[in-house]
Amino acid sequence: MFDATPTGNLAFLVTAFGKPYTSNGFGNWFRKQCDEAGLKHCSAHGLRKAGAGLATENGATERQLMAIFGWTTMKEASGYTRAARQKVLAASGMKLLSRDGGGPERGEARGGEP
User: Fold this and answer.
1) Which end of the chain has fewer CB atoms within 10 angstroms, the N or the C?
2) pTM here?
3) H, E, C per residue of 78-94
4) pLDDT tens digits, one per residue of 51-92
């Protein structure tokens, strides 16, 4: 597979000179492509952020996020896992806002206590 890439290594997208993009160089190239496509609201960072959010909501761990996105510290991944946990907790807690939605029966004490 690597032999089939223009550089013969992990770089699948290369510059006009056949060299791997730098982080900033890729961001600038991607920005230009989005602008030309009329997608001014899109960016490489936004795509990466959306991917990390989706992976986390689908159960990716911090270590998996680090491997997928090339992050070297847990701090970079923890924001996504924290946000996903918050989203899951909020969704599961929404039923508790309803008078008939999953909480204790009327007159029944919470936690099974009388």
Assistant:
1) C
2) 0.61
3) HHHHHHHHHHHHHHHHH
4) 998 998 888 999 999 999 989 999 989 988 888 888 888 988
